[in-house]
Amino acid sequence: DVQLQASGGGLVQAGGSLRLSCVASGFTFDDYIIGWFRQAPGKEREWVSCISNTYGTTFTEDSVKGRFTISSDNAKNTVYLQMNNLKSEDTAVYYCAKGAALYNYWGQGTQVTVSS
Q1: Residue-wise pLDDT tens digits, 47-81
Q2: DSSP secondary-structure letter at 86?
């Protein structure tokens, strides 16, 4: 069975850092893109960043570029999202998802709360 296990969320003060992990299983990790999304209360889910496990190419949404870095350890089937200089507007549930042309499987989320 496909599984995506996100972890690493928590409560942090503004300006602090967190590293989220997404551990994947049940599919050929190297063949897919893994993306991070987030959903704040009362808002729609939004894309944050993604990485191609085939090519190592990364893309990051402009509002977090320079603060968030996505990386992948293919040997561990794990994608990371390093989040630095966190702001209150980064508060959300963060999800990882796998996809090719479209994202077709979502893991459970991990809560990130940034206090100001």
Answers
A1: 999 999 999 999 999 999 999 999 999 999 999 99
A2: -
